[in-house]
Amino acid sequence: MTETIVLLKKSASRLALVCVLGTGLAAPAVAQTMESALSRAYSGNPTLNSQRAAVRATNENVPQALSGYRPRINASADIGASITESSIPSVPRNGTFHNNNTARLNPRGVGLQIDQNIFDGGKTRSSVSQAESQVLGARATLLNTEQNVLLDAATSYMNVLRDTAILNLNRNNVEVLEEQLRQTRDRFQVGEVTRTDVAQAEARLSQAQSQAILAESNLKTSIARFRQNIGVEPKQLSPGRPVENLLPKSLPAALNTALTGHPAIIAALHGVDAAELQVKVTEADLYPVLGVRGIVQQRYDNTLFGDNRSSATAVATLTIPIYEGGQVYSRTRQAKETAGQRRIDVDTSRDTVRAAVVSAWGALDAAKAQITAAQAQVQAAETALAGVREEAKVGQRTTLDVLNAQQELVIARSTLVTAQRDRVVASYAVLSATGKLSADTLRLKAERYDARKHYDQVKGLLWGTQVPDGR
Question: What is the pTM of this model?
């Protein structure tokens, strides 16, 4: 971690400021860019890869549901030994005696049974539709996860830039105050200032050192988050720029885009479809079931030694449920209540998305206004500091006035850095809130993950335990 911080500290204070502000300073050839960081997060973030695996697992619900249309085939075989002893009394002329017989058999056989569903009350059809809705919902959830991961990565990127700049500002402030303290002590030696002026300079230097330590701690935290979200340590980061050119032109347009196409809302709608289909799947257990069963058997030594019998039967079966203790009725009512809950979840998702859009849009507008105000604040603070220093030379200002002016300038520059960071992050937040923050929208140079590819590979599989990647 220390080595990473050293690499980040190599740039001067002005360079750190420019990197956050994104004013167009040419970045070093080896610098990390926002695009490369987001591409790496898109390709290797564990949270995103986990959700992709969840989508692949959900895809398997479709072939499982389709199995209801297919026959069930079972083979059987048996072998055994049978010993039968019999004694039959006989009455000849000279007396009674018994005929004793012993029969030894080795009964064995093989069989094949095929069960084919003909009608199951629509349970299989509803199960297939439900599985397909679950797949579409999982894809929408994946898109929402992609948005969250990219937003976290962009935020981490800008946090490192901000905290690097603030650390450099605070360290530069420490150097300035050290020089200020030296000059104050020299003036004290010749009687131009009092001991109080020296103490004030010492106190302000200690405060600046404390702020520098805190800034370094914040940078370490941001570096750790960067590593967590993007997967590598930050080196020299190029300027981060807002993506306002990708945003809707107005807040109403942003709300319309979000409420009609946000992945979280789409996922919730597919959740309603799946829940309503679950009601039909459960109700199907109350309907008759019609099927056909075919059995083929071959038996040896079944009743007599050496006998050989073959049989084949085909039977249509009709099962009509009469009463099952009320379980199916309860499960049906439960499924209906769950469907009602999912409808409420859609309203919750819409309200959440609406609030996120309004909040992010407001944060973006506020950041823009703060930048303008902070730029004016920095200019005024620089002018004030220069004037106070000149006035202090002729005795019109005290040491405390100079220290206060220096502190105000540091605060103004830190405010500007933070406002610039907030503008970039807020622009990504608006894009995420509208449901458009994706690798395609950002045109990231990363291989796209196609969720439909795995679905097409497994949908029609009839057998096999290997997944498409060979495991």
Answer: 0.84
